[in-house]
Amino acid sequence: MTNNKGGVRPGAGRPKGSKNLIPKEVRKNHQLRAYPDEWELIRTFANLLKRGDSKEKCIDALKDLEEKVFMGKLKKTVNDAFVESVLEKLWEDSNGFETISEWGSVKIGNDNFTLQVPNDYGDGKTAVAIVDKYPEFEKDTFWSEISGKFYIYKSDDGNEIACELDGTYNIYCYEGLVFFEKKEAIK
């Protein structure tokens, strides 16, 4: 009887030079709950991402997809003329931005107070726009009016400032979009 355990065998062990292929930093373990069909998508994307030659392509594809989903949500909720003006403000004039919503809201405030403005959508990203004129909707979307100097925070559970406003603003919430309409501009 021969012992096949241990010792030197042809083809056994790690190939020469493979120590150099081991990454210096090990990927950290993260947990995520997903349904089987969602997990297949996640697993496929993760495998593509781990290939060194496709990481930049994956990042670009995600940015494109995120922008299309965001713009699709915006187009679904408002009329075409207003979409063009808001998109122009959001992306070209930098009057708009996205915030992170852990509590389904946009955090505003200053050193003396904070408020959670509901985004009428839930957790995720919320589009925030500072506009001169808010459009008329069939649904009542007015939330409140605020006056004075205040901040809009990057996250509804953080203190990092995304934008500072000073003046009187009407606040409107509509399906993941929060609008600050400068009151002095209303005609």
Strand order of the largest sheet: 1-4-7-6-5-2-3
In helices, the fraction of residues equals 25-40%
Whole-number average pLDDT? 75
For the secondary structure, the number of strands is 7
Strand content: 25-35%
Shape: elongated
Please outline the major beta sheet. 7 strands, mixed
Instruction: Return the string of H and E elements.
Output: HHHEEEEEEE
User: Structural class, from secondary structure content?
Assistant: alpha+beta
Stretches where pLDDT falls below 50 for ≥5 residues? none
Beginning-to-end CA distance, first to last residue = 97 Å
Radius of gyration: 25 Å
Tally the helices. Answer: 3
Describe this structure in words.
The protein is α+β, with helices and mostly antiparallel strands. Helices cover 27% and strands 30% of the residues. It is built from three helices and seven strands. Strands 1-4-7-6-5-2-3 form a seven-stranded mixed β-sheet. β5 (142-153) and β6 (161-174) form a beta hairpin. The protein is elongated and about 90 Å long. The N and C termini lie far apart (97 Å). The model has no long low-confidence stretch (mean pLDDT 75).
